Amino acid sequence: MTSNYLASLRADSARFAAVLAGTDPSTPVPACPDWSAADLVAHLTGVQTFWGTIVAERLTAPPAEPESDAAADPPTDLSGLLAEFAAASERLTSALAAAGPDEPVWTWHDTDHTIGFVLRRQAHEALVHRLDAESTAEVPFDPVDPELADDGVDEALDVMYGGAPPWATVTLDGPVGLLRTTDTARQWWLQVGRFDGVGPESGTEYQDEPMLALLPDGRPTFTVQAAAADLDAWLWNRPTSGPVSVDGDASRFLAVLREGIQ
Predict the structure, then answer these.
(1) Domain 2-137, CATH 1.20.120.450 — does that match?
(2) Residue 169's pLDDT is what?
(3) Distance (Å) of CA 107 to CA 152, 155, 164, 236, 243
(4) Which is it for the CA torsion 223, 170, 123, 101, positive or negative?
C-alpha cells in the first residue's frame, strides 16, 4: 500500500480541485455544515501547506505560525483559492516524493514520527476531502481503490479513533464490535472504552474521553458491514454510495463516531 499513497494523494487532490472549480464558493459542505466550498479549499490548502513545510524542511517541531502581511490581500474568489491549493499540493507531493518513509519528522502521533506517517495520513486526508468536494459540487463519487479504503478503515479505527496517550488511564468497559467489508473480506474486532488523565504539556484534564481499542478477535455484541469504500467514508461521517448495515446494540460505538474526527 505504501507505494500507492503518493499516487492516491496526487489523484484525489487533483479531483478535489477539478470538481470545485465551477462551484459557487458559498455552497455549503454537506458533511461540515459550518463550512462553505471556499472554507473547504482553504482548509485543505492549510493542511497541505503545514505538512509540506514539515516534510520539505525535515522539521522536528511544528512550523511557526506565519507572520501576517497586512499588505497582502488573500484571495476571496474560488479560482484564487484553488491556485493557492495547487501550489501547496505540488509542494507537499514533491517533498514526499523526494523523501524516504523512515526519515524522522515531527508528527502529532505519540510514537510514529516519520515521513511515512505523514504520507499515509495525507493520502487519507485528501480522499476524505475529495468526497466532501464531490458532495458539495453534487457530482458522482469517483471510485475509491478498495485497498486504499481498507487501509483507511485501519487508520480510522487504530489511529484516529483508537488508542489513548501513553500518560492516560484506559478503561475498556464497552461493547465489542466486528466490522466487515463485503467486497474485500477484511474484518476488525474492536472494543469501546474510555480514558482519563492530564496532558503533561497542556495541563488539560480528560475524563471519560471515548476511545476505541482494536482486538485480535472477540465475541461481538454488534456488527457493521459495508463495502470497503463505504465503511471508510461512514467512519468519517461522510456520505456513502452503498448501504452500511449495523446489527446489535452499537449505541456506544455510534456515539464515538458522532464525536467525529477532523
Answers:
(1) yes
(2) 94
(3) 18, 15, 16, 21, 35
(4) negative
Give the side-chain half-sphere CA count within 13 A for 130: 22
Question: At CA 49, angle to CA 109 and CA 43, rounded to 5?
Answer: 85
Helix, strand, coil tally for the chain in percent (to 5): 45, 20, 35
**Averaged pLDDT for residues 31-60:** 96
Which residue intervals of 100-186 are DSSP H helices?
115-137, 146-155
The CATH number corresponding to 148-259 among 3.10.450, 3.40.50, 3.30.420, 3.30.1050 equals 3.30.1050
Comparing C-alpha atoms, which of 188, 178, 129 is closest to residue 154? Answer: 188
Is the CB of residue 101 less than 8 Å from the CB of residue 115? yes
Enumerate the β-bridge partners of residue 162: 212
Query: Which pLDDT belongs to residue 261?
Result: 66
Q: What is the pTM of this model?
A: 0.92
